[in-house]
Automatic annotation (TrEMBL):
Enzyme class: ligase
Keyword ATP-binding: yes
Encoding gene, per UniProt annotation: accC
Self-association and partners: Acetyl-CoA carboxylase is a heterohexamer of biotin carboxyl carrier protein, biotin carboxylase and the two subunits of carboxyl transferase in a 2:2 complex.
Reaction it catalyzes: N(6)-biotinyl-L-lysyl-[protein] + hydrogencarbonate + ATP = N(6)-carboxybiotinyl-L-lysyl-[protein] + ADP + phosphate + H(+)
GO biological process, one term: malonyl-CoA biosynthetic process
NCBIfam families in alphabetical order: accC, PRK08591.1
Its EC number(s): 6.3.4.14
Chain ranges of the ATP-grasp domain: 120-316
Name the record gives this protein: Biotin carboxylase
Domain of life: Bacteria
Amino acid sequence: MFEKILIANRGEIALRILRAAKELGIATVAVHSTADSEAMHVKLADESVCIGPPAARDSYLNIPGLLAACEITGADAVHPGYGFLSENAKFAEICADHEIAFIGPKAEHIRIMGDKIEAKRTARALGIPCVPGSEGGITDDDEAMRVAEQIGFPVLVKAAAGGGGRGMKVARTALDLSEALATARTEAKAAFGDDAVYLEKYLEKPRHIEIQILGDGLGNAVHVGERDCSLQRRHQKVLEETPSPALNQDQRQKIGEICADAMRKLKYSGAGTIEFLYENGEFYFIEMNTRIQVEHPITEMISGLDLIVEQIKIASGAPLAYRQEDIDLRGHAIECRVNAEHPATFRPSPGKILYYHPPGGVGVRVDSAAYQGYVIPPNYDSMVGKLIVQGRTRNEALMRLRRALDEFIVDGVDTTLPLFRALVRNSEIQDGAYDIHWLEKFLAAGGMDHHE
């Protein structure tokens, strides 16, 4: 097992990793920018190293700085969390070159899954169902038209190097296609420095379903159920739940087994999430995230597993300690991402938290690095914390969530808490009748007007 883990992240995930390491008896090193010197994980870690000014590129993305911090403190492993360098194959390789364990998959797997076109090719080869679309990047409009006619309109034009919804355009008819291609290419070039695009079928009312997997790199892999992440705004997840209200037990097991089997063939190591769009009983692969996800706690709540502890054990070379039949999923869990943003306009609201009271009680978990007097810096994402609830049934989880939201107080900054209070009282949410467009329609229709 590792002696000392350097946590190459900040905020709630840094604290989450620190807690897992502590429970394994492993010493921790917090790194931080000058903006984060008062952060909770910095206060609680065994050692801390300041690695640069507030801008992420000069601190949390500064590879030489992180390696120097490992060197100074004698850390023998790095946990990258999510975001920042978590899916950077080069960073994983550099760590390996310096004999520092990267707590995540092999660099080649990060690289394959980080390239959307290569990821789809690999997924197909591994037997994972994919969205019908172009085999690779599209270079000219005539080729795009041929592909579009083959898969049928509407189609989605996507940036090959993309993410976060940039470089994505819908073409509903042949007439829209060349404009969609031109706009997507321009956006992709500006955002990612690469104007390669590809086409795939546009699904009208899909749900976003993702499967959590764990592999040990030795050919063993299991799935730990699915999460429904369909409540999104601008392709950013807002609320997640497990199990999905849209799936039955057979569908759940079938897609889970397909994913676990693919990871066995790939000899994947660590935690990973395979993301799908789901419509009319069919799953379509969109991407794989080769890291821990923001929404991992809901899976922990129903499985009893600590996914970060599992990541650390796997990275230290331990084989999986269980088989698929040992994974026992119970009850229902829901997570709300509470951000320091205006609940209707989503305008960021950095600043000082004057009063902070997280909810508690049975089946309630709050993953947060916030505290009274903490200043949320304007330099990073605006997450205050994640509210996670579990119940024996979905209804019990919803009632528990309603109670917990009413107890949660954050004063001094705007937060998205009023949005969640409105959602949990909405009849369509209560019925589980939503898709990936639901939240944007709700907001456009003035669903939050009386909360402003």
